[in-house]
Design brief:
Radius of gyration: 26 Å
Strand content: 25-35%
Structural class: alpha+beta
Oligomer: single chain
Distance between the termini: 58 Å
Shape: globular
Number of strands: 37
Largest sheet: 9 strands, mixed
C-alpha cells in the first residue's frame, strides 16, 4: 500500500469544522465512521482562539476520541472582517509609482447613493503621509520606460519604518504586465528590513485596473499581521492540546486553503466562513434533489442570503467590505474597501439574534446593526447586557426554550420583559408582547430585504425557490420571512445551528491563478491561449501539491475574462477553444446578468485557472443524520404569542430528535443547536435524514 497524503488520511480519521460567530462558536466533528457530533460554545471576542480551543476539547470528549485521532481542523474565522470593521489592522504603508499615491482616495469616482448628501467616502487604510512614491515606469505593453530607482525604494522604506510601519504594500503601474520592478522592490525591502511584512500586488492580484489592484493589495497588507498572529496562537494551542493535524481555513469563495496560504494572502479570507453555509446548502440541495434554493443564515450578529440556482452557487470576482447593510449589486460601488477576489455572492444585513432594538431620534423602532454579541449579551443572558435584543423578544413571545446551546446558557424571561418594557413598550404605550412582536416584524423586514437583493433585484422570482434556514436563529424566523416573500417552502437541515461548520467539511481545496491576455476576440488564437493555460495549470498543480493534495485528487478549470470594448468590468466564462463558442458563451452570460447585449467588439482580458483538491473525506449530507423513532405526543405545551390578531396559543413543544414525521402547526421544535418555529396553518414533515420541510398555508 502506498503512502497516504494528508487529504487521503482525512477519510479515515476525525475531522473538525469550526465556525466563529459573534455570539457562539459552532463545532462539528465527523469521526470517519459516519458519526457526526456538534457543539456550541460562547464566543470569546477578545481572543477568538480561546472559544475554538475550548470547543475542540469538548467535542473530542463528546466523540470519545483522543486528540491524536483528529486528522484535520477546518476553520472559518471573522478575524479578517472584524479587523476591517473595527479598523484595528496593522500600521500599513504603500510604495507606488511616482504620481499615483492618491489612487486609493480617487477610487472609482462614484458614490453608492446618488442623492445622499451626507455620505462620506471611507477613510483610506493607509494615511497619505504613509504613501510613498518612487521613480519607475512600465508601459501598458510591459516595456520599461523608466528604470526602478532602488535608492528611492530604500529611502521610502526607511521613512515608513521610522514612522512605526511594519506592513508594506507595493503596487506599481502596469506591474501585471511586467513584474520586474515590483519583484525587485520587494526583494530590496526584505533584505534591508527583514522585520517588515511585504505584500506585492502581483502576488495577490496580477490584473489590470490600478485602483482595484492597489486596494486589494493594501487590504492584504493591513490584515496580514493580525491574521498571522491569530493563526499562530490557534495552531500553538492546538499543538499544546495534542492535536498534530493540519489547519485549513475557509476562504471567501467557500473553498479551503492551508493556514500558510491564509497567512500570506488574508485578503482571500475576509469573508471566511460566511460562504461555507452556502456551500453546505448547495450540497444538501444536491442530496435532496432540490436545485433552486435561497440559503438564509441568521446568527447572533448578522443575517445573510445567497442564491443557489439550478444547483450552482452565485459567485462574483470582486466585492466591497462595508459596515452596516451590504447588499450585492453590480451597480452600487464606492461604499467600502474594494477587493478583487473570488467570493460567493451574499447579501448581508446587520440583523442577528443579538441585534439591539431601540427607538431612534425620530421615534421609530430600529433593530441593529449594533449587536450585544456574546459579551455583554442580550438582557435575558443575565451576564451584563441590559438592552433588549431579538433574542429577548423571541424568548418573551415563547419561541425559545429556557436554555440555549444544549443547556449551557440559561435564559431569564423576566429580564427580557423588563428590558423590552423599559426601552420599547413604554415609549410606544404597548404591552411588552406587542413591542416584542414589533421587534420581530422589523428584523424580519430587514432580512427579507437581503433575500430580495439576491432574487427580485436579479430578476428572479423567490416563489420558485425553497428557503433553506440555517444558523442558530434562522429557523426561528424563516417561516415568517418566507410568508413575506410568498415563498411556499422552508427547508430546515438536521443541524441548522452548526450548519456552516458542517459546510466547511463539505468544501474542497482551491487555488486561483490568472494571467493577462489582452486581445480582441476576433484575433484570439487558441494555440497561444493553450500555451498560457498550460503554464497556469502547472502553477496550480504545484500549489495544490504544496497543500498536500495527491495528484489523482487534483482537477483544474479554465476560464476566460471578457468584456465589450470600452467597458471597465469583465465577466468570466468557461474556456472553449473556439472563437464562435466563446462569443456565444459571453453574450449569454452578459444577457443573463444585464438582460440585454451589445453588438460592440468583444475583448479578451485575461485567462484564469482554478485548481481544486478534491476531498475524499467530505461529509455526506444524506448520511450525516438519521431520524429516530418519533413520538406523536409533545414534550410539553407552552403559550406562544403570535401577534395581536391571534394572541397567545397553547403550542406543542417537541424535541427535534424525537419529533413525529409530520407536524401541523402551531408547533415549536427544540434542538441542541437551534429552535424551529412552525406557525399556525403550516405543516412540517421530516425526511429519513432528519431534515424538516415546512409547507406554508
Amino acid at each position: 500500500m502506498g503512502t497516504l497524503t494528508g487529504l487521503e488520511r482525512t477519510s479515515t480519521g476525525a475531522r473538525i469544522g469550526v465556525d466563529i460567530g459573534g455570539t457562539f462558536t459552532d463545532l462539528v466533528l465527523a469521526d470517519g465512521r459516519g458519526a457526526v457530533f456538534h457543539r456550541k460554545v460562547a464566543s470569546t471576542p477578545a481572543a477568538p482562539e480561546q472559544a475554538v480551543l475550548e470547543g475542540v476539547a469538548a467535542i473530542i470528549a463528546d466523540a470519545r476520541l483522543t486528540p491524536g485521532e483528529v486528522t484535520e481542523v477546518v476553520h472559518g474565522t471573522t478575524v479578517g472582517s472584524n479587523t476591517l470593521l473595527q479598523k484595528v489592522g496593522a500600521p500599513t504603508g504603500l510604495i507606488t509609482t511616482k504620481g499615483f499615491r492618491d489612487v486609493l482616495e480617487i477610487g472609482r469616482l462614484r458614490t453608492p447613493s446618488m442623492f445622499d448628501l451626507q455620505w462620506e467616502k471611507p477613510v483610506p487604510l493607509v494615511a497619505r503621509r504613509h504613501r510613498k512614491e518612487v521613480s519607475e515606469r512600465i508601459a501598458a505593453d510591459g516595456t520599461i520606460l523608466v528604470p526602478l530607482d532602488e535608492a528611492a525604494v530604500l529611502e521610502a522604506a526607511q521613512e515608513l519604518v521610522d514612522a512605526g510601519i511594519f506592513s508594506f504594500a507595493v503596487c506599481f503601474l502596469n506591474s501585471y504586465r511586467n513584474p520586474a520592478h515590483e519583484q525587485r522592490a520587494a526583494t530590496l525591502i526584505a533584505e534591508h528590513f527583514p522585520q517588515v511584512r511585504v505584500t506585492s500586488s502581483i502576488s495577490v492580484l496580477p490584473e489590470a485596473k490600478e485602483y482595484e489592484r492597489t486596494s486589494t493589495t493594501v487590504v492584504n497588507a493591513y490584515v496580514r499581521p493580525v491574521l498571522e498572529a491569530y493563526l499562530t496562537r490557534l495552531e500553538r494551542g492546538l499543538a499544546d492540546a495534542g492535536i498534530d493535524a493540519p489547519l485549513l481555513v475557509c476562504n471567501s469563495n467557500g473553498a479551503l486553503a492551508s493556514s500558510g496560504t491564509a497567512r500570506e494572502k488574508p485578503v482571500f479570507f475576509i469573508s471566511s466562513g460566511r460562504a461555507a453555509g452556502v456551500v453546505g446548502g448547495s450540497r444538501l440541495g444536491e442530496a435532496l434533489d432540490i436545485k433552486d434554493l435561497v440559503v438564509f443564515d441568521m446568527g447572533g450578529t448578522t443575517a445573510s442570503a445567497s442564491l443557489v440556482q439550478n444547483g450552482e452557487l452565485t459567485r462574483v470576482s470582486e466585492y466591497e467590505f462595508r459596515a452596516g447593510i451590504s447588499t450585492p449589486s453590480r451597480f452600487i460601488k464606492a461604499g467600502g474597501y474594494m477587493m478583487s477576489v473570488p467570493t460567493v455572492d451574499v447579501a448581508e444585513v446587520g440583523s442577528g439574534a443579538g441585534s439591539i432594538a431601540y427607538v431612534d431620534q425620530g421615534g421609530l423602532m430600529r433593530v441593529g446593526p449594533v449587536s450585544a454579541g456574546a459579551d455583554p449579551g442580550p438582557a435575558c443572558y443575565g451576564i451584563g447586557g441590559s438592552r433588549p435584543t431579538v433574542t429577548d423578544a423571541n424568548l418573551l413571545l415563547g419561541y425559545l426554550p429556557a436554555q440555549l446551546a444544549g443547556g449551557s446558557r440559561a435564559l431569564s424571561v423576566e429580564a427580557a420583559r423588563t428590558a423590552i418594557a423599559r426601552d420599547l413598550a413604554d415609549p410606544f404605550g404597548l404591552t411588552p408582547e406587542d413591542a416584542a412582536c414589533g421587534v420581530r416584524d422589523v428584523v424580519n423586514a430587514n432580512m427579507a430585504r437581503a433575500i430580495r437583493a439576491v432574487t427580485v433585484e436579479r430578476g428572479v422570482d423567490p416563489r420558485d425557490f425553497t428557503l433553506v434556514a440555517i444558523g442558530g436563529s434562522g429557523p426561528v424566523h424563516a417561516a415568517d420571512i418566507a410568508r413575506l416573500l410568498s415563498m411556499p417552502r422552508v427547508l430546515v437541515p438536521a443541524s441548522p445551528g452548526v450548519f456552516t461548520a458542517m459546510g466547511m467539511l463539505a468544501g474542497d481545496v482551491e487555488r486561483y491563478f490568472i494571467r493577462p491576455f489582452a486581445v480582441k476576440l476576433a484575433d484570439f488564437q487558441p494555440a497561444e491561449a493553450e500555451t498560457a493555460f498550460a503554464a497556469l495549470e502547472a502553477d496550480a498543480r504545484a500549489a495544490l501539491a504544496g497543500e498536500d493534495v495527491a495528484e489523482h485528487l487534483m482537477s483544474v478549470t479554465r476560464e476566460v475574462d471578457m468584456r465589450f470594448r470600452g467597458q471597465e468590468m469583465s465577466l468570466s466564462v468557461p474556456y472553449l477553444a473556439d472563437r464562435d463558442a466563446l462569443h456565444a458563451a459571453f453574450k449569454a452570460a452578459y444577457e443573463a446578468i444585464y438582460s440585454y447585449s451589445s453588438s460592440d467588439t468583444i475583448e479578451v482580458v485575461s485567462l484564469r485557472v482554478i485548481g481544486r483538491g478534491l476531498r475524499p473525506g467530505k461529509i455526506d449530507f444524506r448520511a450525516a443524520h438519521a431520524r429516530g423513532e418519533g413520538s406523536s405526543e409533545p414534550e410539553s405545551i407552552r403559550k406562544v404569542y403570535y401577534g395581536a390578531d391571534q394572541g397567545h396559543i397553547d403550542t406543542p413543544v417537541y424535541v427535534r430528535t424525537r419529533c413525529p414525521a409530520r407536524i401541523v402547526g402551531p408547533a415549536v421544535i427544540e434542538g441542541a443547536d437551534s429552535t424551529v418555529v412552525v406557525p399556525p396553518g403550516a405543516t412540517a414533515e421530516a425526511d429519513a435524514h432528519a431534515n424538516l420541510l415546512i409547507t406554508l398555508a
